[in-house]
Design goal:
167 residues, alpha+beta, Bacterial Protein-export protein SecB, 4-stranded antiparallel sheet, 29% helix
Length: 167
């Protein structure tokens, strides 16, 4: 059986490891449903008269705010509206939150940690909440395909840059 050995690190006079780079960490402290809304405006007719699957439009947004040094709240908002024959079948809107700690992150790395990696970690849980809400509303679960948060951030940055040039 192999023995576990902890390697020793050379330390400088202040007790820190010599030439040891600070390790960047993303810690999810909490995840929660901040707001959830489900509407079934045509029930029970919408549940009885289904001739085929509805057309579903999806909107996703990510916002973040600083709570304290290295501490952030990230909000992932998912809105979906299903329509059949021009009438709304159901609407669901979820704002799913997380409080995260970003330790030792440089200013260049911070946006990708907060606005890409954090929502990527949150997404499976938010997807499940949306699926359960639509299922509990009497419909098949709405299973959202994975989201490219890198592209979402790029589009938001392009939109902001275009807004600044026209202002």
């Amino acid at each position: 059986m192999a023995q576990d050995e902890t390697p020793t690190l050379a330390t400088s006079g202040n007790g820190a490891a010599a030439d040891e780079p600070k390790q960047v960490q993303l810690i999810v402290n909490a995840q929660y449903v901040k707001d959830l809304s489900f509407e079934n405006p045509r029930a029970p007719q919408s549940l009885i008269q289904q001739k085929g699957p509805p057309d579903v439009s999806l909107d996703v947004d990510v916002k973040a705010r600083n709570l304290a040094p290295e501490l952030y709240e990230v909000l992932l908002t998912i809105s979906a509206e299903a329509k059949a024959e021009g009438e709304t079948v159901f609407m669901v809107q979820l704002t799913y939150g997380a409080v995260v700690t970003a330790k030792n992150a440089s200013q260049e790395l911070l946006p990708s940690m907060i606005l890409i990696e954090t929502p990527r970690l949150m997404f499976p849980f938010a997807r499940n909440v949306v699926a359960e809400a639509t299922r509990d509303g009497g419909f098949p679960p709405l299973l959202i395909n994975p989201i490219d948060f890198v592209e979402l951030l790029r589009r938001e940055q392009a939109k902001q840059a275009a807004g600044e040039t026209t202002a």
